[in-house]
Amino acid sequence: MADKNLPKDVLKAVSKKTGKPITEGAVKKLASGVTPNTVKSEAELRRLIKQVSAMAKVPVSEQTMNEIVGAVKKTGLNNLEQLMKSMLKK
Length: 90
Description:
The chain is mainly α.
C-alpha cells in the first residue's frame, strides 16, 4: 500500500538535506513532463535527473547519476516509492 505522506516526506527530506526548499508545485510541473518513455530512454532519464538537480540546486556526480539510472532501469516506475525511500536513506 502506498504511503500517502511520502510526497510531503520527500519534499521535507530534500529540503532538510539540501537546505533549499523545493515546492510541491515545482515538483508537479517537472513530473507532468515525465512519461514511461522517460524511464526507458537513458538520455531522457539523465535529462530528468539534471532537471531535478538544478531545481534542488544540488550537483549530482556522474557516479550518483549512474546509480540512479541503474536503479530506475532495474525497477522501472513500478516500484518508484521504494526507490525514493532507498535514495532518501543515502
